[in-house]
Amino acid sequence: MEPKELERYFEKGTLIPAVIQEAGTGEVLMLAYMNRESLERTLRTGYTWFYSRSRQELWNKGATSGHVQRVLSVMGDCDRDTLLIQVEQTGPACHTGSHSCFFRQLTQWEATAGKENEENE
Amino acid sequence: MEPKELERYFEKGTLIPAVIQEAGTGEVLMLAYMNRESLERTLRTGYTWFYSRSRQELWNKGATSGHVQRVLSVMGDCDRDTLLIQVEQTGPACHTGSHSCFFRQLTQWEATAGKENEENE
User: pTM (2 decimals)?
Assistant: First the structure.
């Protein structure tokens, strides 16, 4: 990818969300944010780097835990403000020990699942 | 879900990203943002509602195009600032006509794929 093309992903802001999906299972593991430098490092090294909004620093996923993510594919979306990254995940992706960070089922919805769209305004 | 529990998803900000995944294929279709009201409408109606940052208004995905998303599951992540929504997608998810919004391959990376992590600092 040309540097100019990469630049276009950061026109709206300095951070963009990156959805991390396990290539083998299709499971969505986590979402984290990238700035331009973390995307460049990810592209260059083949392992995920993110930008921590709370710590305000770059972090290499798994550098401490060993639960690294080897990158198999990086895709941008239609309007170039989100990334989808297919990885091979070593160990759990979540700091809680869960394989995926998405483990909280929001249950109230289930009672109305499958109903016709009442508010298609 | 209790209203108090729902409230926790909007403690850090008024908008959170929602990853939309096709339930049948596992394909990640798009990412859009939800405020509390759009999440409530999604939970209540069983179809996706988002908040448009550019237009600053709620929108019901597919209300114009007919390409609606019937919700099968809503999951929150470990720190309650991202949603993963499994849907049954009618037609293409992307306004370009692509099934998924993620169709831009970032290719420079491919040349270094699979290399050992050189920057595991």
Answer: 0.88
